[in-house]
Amino acid sequence: MNRRYFLRDVLRGATALGLGGVFAGLIRRVKASGTVWQIDPWKCTRCGRCATECVLEQSAVKCVHSFEMCGYCKLCTGYFEPQPNKLNTAAENQLCPTGAIYRTFVEDPYYEYRINEPLCVGCAKCVAGCTMFGNGSLHLQIRHDRCVHCNECSIARACPADAIQRVPAAQPYKFKSRGDAHD
Amino acid sequence: MIELLADQRFPPPEFTETGHRLPGFTIALPRGPWLERLDIIVLVAALSLAAWLVLRQRSRRGLVALGIFSVLYFGFWKKGCICSIGSIQNMAQGLADSSVGVPLTVLAFGLIPLVFALVVGRVFCSAVCPHGALQDLMLMKPVKVPAWLEHGLGLIPYTYLGLAMIFAATGGGYIICQYDPFVTIFRLSGSVLMVSSGIGLLVLGMFIGRPYCRFACPYGALLGLASKVSKWRARITPDTCTQCRLCEQSCPFGALNKSTVDAPSRTVRTDKHLLAVIILLLPVLICAGVWGGGAAGKSLARKHRVVSLAERVYLEETGKAQGTTDESAAFRVTGAPVEGLYAEARAVRDRYVTASRLCGGWIALVAGLKLIALAVRRKRDDYETDETRCVACARCFKSCPQELQRLGLPVPEGARLAPPP
Q: Please, where are the H alpha helices in B31-81?
């Protein structure tokens, strides 16, 4: 019996040492502020999977608008169907399937486009339209009041462009801005 | 490229008439880091409480209450994430790839339950793990699983652990999280397959105690190994075992080892020839495992995004596939050279083959050691909880007449009691 207890003590010590080694090896990788998931909008290819792959019933990904990049166009290709009947706010002319973008007249000929976030499902249809013919001022971001911080983001797993990465929690967003350098 | 041009195409207008000012972004901040620290504190507190309830209080009722708390807090409130089971994947990836960061909560959730298991056994499984606690609460009418099936299925967690480590260490994704059956229940959403397997496992768990813990959980396998050499663990009797056999049927998880005092001597003797054959076969088994792992590595690698992308791009380049997928289109947009992608895919595949060989060897080693453990018949003087399999649920305690006497409860008639010290 003594031999067995001795062996057990030795093995326990060895396991504890091993766990200590793992801890020592990994503690240096811990970022002080913690990390959160975020989309790099410059990598995003607007495939639409953000709307369906999130573990939440309604995705944590929402469309956001960089007003400083927006052209305030009257014919916004992120807002209107490709061939709209008329350039008005009627539902059949809108690209957004949930009518989450609303536009307000500012001054001739400029309109401002805003996102009604509770309606947005993150499908990226408007982002595709805006980026194809416009400035790409509409883009997707993960909203941190909704994101549940899964250990492995299930949208990141499905993202064809590998655009979703962990970012420092101190800078939790990657908004597009006018002066962004990218290639 | 298009975006750059577009950027210069329409500058935002200057609103001279109305003086309209451009709105900014609305920012919703993530929860503060102190809340993550709080989770670690709750984990340590729950583990300490569970250890106290199992070893000192010997209270099943207390464990049930703690289990309900864990299901509500770590399960439904935290939506089942971060969990200790999944955290071992971050650790494997962190150890294999020095560029990968590991969150502090993940490190704490991965290591602290293992440290506790080294000291007091699997108290994490008993009532702190929301998966374990949920299944434990669901158990209604336990059916005994035959020993051969129990031992056979008991090898699955080690296999699953090995596979999960391959995928995590090579950057191929976290399969434990992907195929977690209960997280869909905690989130109240998920794919049809995972929701139905979660509900199916819970229904099965009404009759077969803790099916996920016993026959799937890779973290439970690690905790079992740690618990094997633990300093203390749950004991059936509070003081002396009198071989009264009243506890024999009390464990619904097949984690109770019978005493061999009353057993016929031939069932206790180890068959030395059989043991020698198994020990000699062990290296052969491990070689076969390594070989099999190497063979499986290439097909496992095809699950990795870089490898599947490279295969797709190769098909497109050689004209064997028409059009593009989302993935290959995204790759074309970057303008990166195809050769670079191929080289990266080859490197990933080589890593998979190496990891897969190790995993094959590991599975063979576990299977071999299991055979050896089955061949060695040990004498036992007492009825004891199994070192690796006992999840410290405290169900067996009150079947022991010594315990009933200690609590001042009526002892069944004719039960053997130890003479008072």
A: 33-51, 60-70
Number of domains in chain A: 1
Is the CB of residue A92 less than 8 Å from the CB of residue A105? no
pTM of the full structure? 0.91
Task: Give the residue from chain B lying closest to A25, CA to CA.
Answer: B95
Is B339 touching A (CB cutoff 8 A)? no
Name every residue whose Cβ is closer than 8 Å to that of residue B12 and which is 6 or more positions away in sequence: A67, A68, A69, A70, A71, A72, A178, B22
pLDDT by residue, tens only, chain B of 421 residues = 444 444 456 677 888 888 888 888 888 888 777 888 899 999 999 999 999 999 999 999 999 999 999 999 999 998 888 899 999 999 999 999 888 889 899 999 999 999 999 999 999 999 999 999 999 999 999 999 998 999 999 999 999 999 999 999 998 899 999 999 999 999 988 889 999 999 999 999 999 999 999 999 999 999 999 999 999 999 999 888 888 889 988 999 999 998 888 777 766 777 889 999 999 999 999 999 999 999 999 999 999 999 999 999 999 999 998 888 999 999 998 888 999 999 999 999 999 999 999 999 999 999 999 999 988 888 888 899 999 999 999 999 999 999 999 999 988 887 778 776 6
* Residue A179 in domain: no
CB contact under 8 A, A135 and B17: no
Is residue A119 domain-resident?
yes
Q: Choose, out of A42, A53, A152, the residue to mutate when testing the contact with B (most B CBs < 10 Å).
A: A152
Question: Among partner residues B4, B106, B187, which is closest to A151 by beta-carbon distance?
Answer: B106
The answer to whether A152 contacts B305, with C-beta atoms less than 8 Å apart, is no
B13 interface with A at CB cutoff 8 Å: yes
DSSP B321: S
| 3-state secondary structure (DSSP) of residue B379 | coil
Q: Residue A11 falls within a domain, yes or no? A: no
Q: At what angle do helices B338-375 and B305-317 cross, to 10 degrees?
A: 140
Q: Which residues span the domain enclosing A162?
A: 34-168
Among A9, A28, A29, the residue to mutate for chain B (most B Cβ within 10 A)? A29
Q: How far apart are CA A125 and CA A78, in angstroms?
A: 7
The answer to whether residue A177 is domain-embedded is no
On whether any CB of chain B is under 8 Å from the CB of A171, the answer is no
